[in-house]
Amino acid sequence: MTYLLSDLRIAFRGLRRRPGFTALAVGTLGLASAATTVVLSLVYAVLLRPLPFPEPEGLARMETVRTDQGVTRGCSLLDIEDYQRMAATLDGIGAYTVGMTQLQGDGPALAVTTAWVTSGVLAVVGVEPVLGRRFTPAQDRTGGDVQRVLLSHGLWLSRFGGDPGVLGKTIHTPVAAYTVAGVMPPGFDFPEHADMWVPMESWYAAQTGDRAVKKRGQFWYSTIARLAPGVSLAEARQELEAVAAHLAEQFPEENGDVGLRLTSLRQLETAELRPYLALLVAGAAMLLAIGCANVAGLLLVHAAARERELAVRAALGAARGRLMGVVVAEAAILAAIAVPPSLALTYAGIGALRRLIPVPLPVGMAVEVDVAVLCGSLAIATGAALLAVAVPAWQTGRTDPRAVLAEGGRTAPGRARMRSALIVGEVALSLLLLIGAGLLVRTFLTLADTDPGFRRSGLLVVQVARYQAGETRTERAGPLARFHDSVLARLAALPGVEGTAATNSLPFERSTVERRQATLTVRGATPEDVEHLSALAGADVTPGYFAAMGIPILAGRGLAETDTAESPCVVLVDEEGARELWPDREPLGQELLWGNLSANNPFCTVIGVVGDVKHHAAEGADPVELYYSFRQWPVDNPYYVLRVTGDPLALAPAVRRAIAEIDPNTAVVSIESMTDRFDRSLWPRRLWGVAFAGFALLALALTAVGLYGAISYAVSLRTRELGIRVALGARSRDLLLLVIAEGLKLVGIGAALGLACAFVASRWFTSLLFGVRPLDPQTYVNVTLLLAVIALVACTVPARRAARIDPLEALRRE
Prior knowledge:
Blueprint: H1 2-17, H2 19-48, E1 59-66, E2 71-73, H3 77-86, E3 90-103, E4 110-117, H4 119-125, E5 131-132, E6 148-151, H5 153-160, E7 170-172, E8 177-183, E9 196-199, H6 200-205, E10 222-227, H7 233-250, H8 252-255, E11 258-264, H9 265-270, H10 274-305, H11 307-315, H12 320-355, H13 371-398, H14 401-406, H15 413-448, E12 459-465, H16 473-492, E13 497-503, E14 513-514, E15 520-522, H17 527-530, E16 536-541, H18 545-549, E17 553-556, E18 570-574, H19 575-581, E19 591-594, E20 604-610, E21 624-629, E22 639-644, H20 652-662, E23 667-673, H21 674-681, H22 683-717, H23 719-727, H24 732-765, H25 777-803, H26 807-813
Parallel strand pairs: 4-9, 6-8, 16-21, 18-20
Antiparallel strand pairs: 1-2, 1-10, 1-11, 3-4, 3-10, 5-8, 6-9, 7-8, 12-22, 12-23, 13-22, 14-16, 15-19, 17-20, 18-21, 19-20
Helix pairs in contact: 1-12, 2-10, 2-12, 2-13, 3-7, 10-13, 10-15, 10-22, 12-13, 15-22, 15-24, 15-25, 16-20, 22-25, 23-26, 24-25
């Protein structure tokens, strides 16, 4: 203990005498460890933090798969009942679908995200209400007491003031009136950030005719299951696949091509993020390595400055371990000092990270600073300091004190070679990070500049919650169309509005793309002719939609006011769809059917061809899009699209007032510009690009500092040599070029190593890029030139100092 305290005192005095060195080392450790901690916080939130359910590892998502296309879909309610009855490996199954509805009465209409669930959903996740009780199986049967509702804790507080007497209260929606049966715990919003939950059977009870009948072929419902105790995912999957095969034999028409997929709930929700998280972890690890190398180089310089002192102590009998102990003590002090700034930077970084994620993450995946993060930050800062001290401590332990004293305190060649190796490593990792950041940023910029097929500037998008009851298509479509026409007329009269339209589907939303969950039938074509179309998108639009959006009509006509529910069904198809469906025929006048033929779903005649519209801001083939008449199909919860002059969002208050004046029971869900919708669709790309670019810039800065420090110290060690060169006739320019050349030599070696590593790692980038090749020459050349320029600046400053050496002063100093 005495030795330890003595080492700490010596180390502390040494650090205090060199405040610049101490501040630089602490700042480097704090930056590197904070960046790593922020990334690990994101990884922990998405991949490691347990879901807020009892025994979450037993939860899995069930999906059906069309074996003829490999396309995943939801499950049928009738199939779910069979799986529940026949599968012994499952402890329970629940199905749900999520939509928007509006609360009416007790204040202004309020749009709420509603989950229609079977009683098994809440039983499977195992979460109990804090007030009341969850649904029972009896409240999930035809003819049962199904008009019940569970409220989210947030909705209970905001709408009902946290009144514990809310139980038994009746609330009204356009679909039905419900009795409040309970309030869920704070923070619980599964699935899909629901505000309230109602029994699945309540929806069917509110319908009449064909809409009130459950059918086996309705593969619409998301399904969650809990594995029985002691059952593995593989065992459950094997049994469920056997049940699916049995159902395919029993119901060949509906289930003949239907298989089943069982996936861990966590794995399914994070599958798309995993490659990017792995990339961020790699980037953070490289930044941490650069920081450690930088601090190690600083400690080598610091140790070299004290080399003679340590040699004298060794000559006086100090053991080698004691000499190394001083260096280790310095690292321990640096780590302790680096913890507060590391924590401050961690909090700031996580706050910035949250601002870069504009959408709610799945339940239980909030990125926040918690105990695990704080412990991680401490461990990373300490580990980084210990890793950085390993090289100088080892070098100090190998130093021969007699040689040091004999050489007059000049640094041994081994220590100089070690500093050079650290600089080469820093340059290589920095270039690798710069190339990765360049590729990701170029991907984001390419996507941002992609032509979406319409004019997104000057568009205001208003989503409302509105429902119309009725049994048939015409019974529902007519009243809804008249209501929406009245709203559009009112909105068109607002100042600055140049055009208005309504639709039930817009670009840049996942829900707009149907992965062939319904059959597409083309009159005169065989099923094989269209089965290659794995994705379809459908939109019901008003006649003014194409003009408001700026989508060109390439052939035929657009929709007209006369295309009503009582007239023959019409459809427009995009250019790519026309080419795919009728490669050798004129598309106009052709007939197609999406779904099963019925009185409510007839064949539609193609009356026009329009320009292609992108539905994915990122990569991926866009679907074939079909546009139907808004007046021929009932549209609940539509979007109103306004083409305006000036700032679209400036009209938001007037839009809200206009809708409320027409119908106070119509709730406004959201008002945003199309530009904001487009930007939000790119948030993952922006996040990864910004994060990796931040890592790269920090790495570049640390490398420049390390290179500057190494060259500066090398110049100080060579003062006598440089003075002799000047005395023998060397010009200032010669010294300048000599020092710069030696620095750039290290940079060149590091750059070559970094480029080689980038070539090897390029195949891992392929799936993460869009419009940019992994070996993109422009990116490689630009970042290499950037690194060269920064390195040249870092070398020039100490080189200019060397060029001004006075030979008499240099020789006298020795």
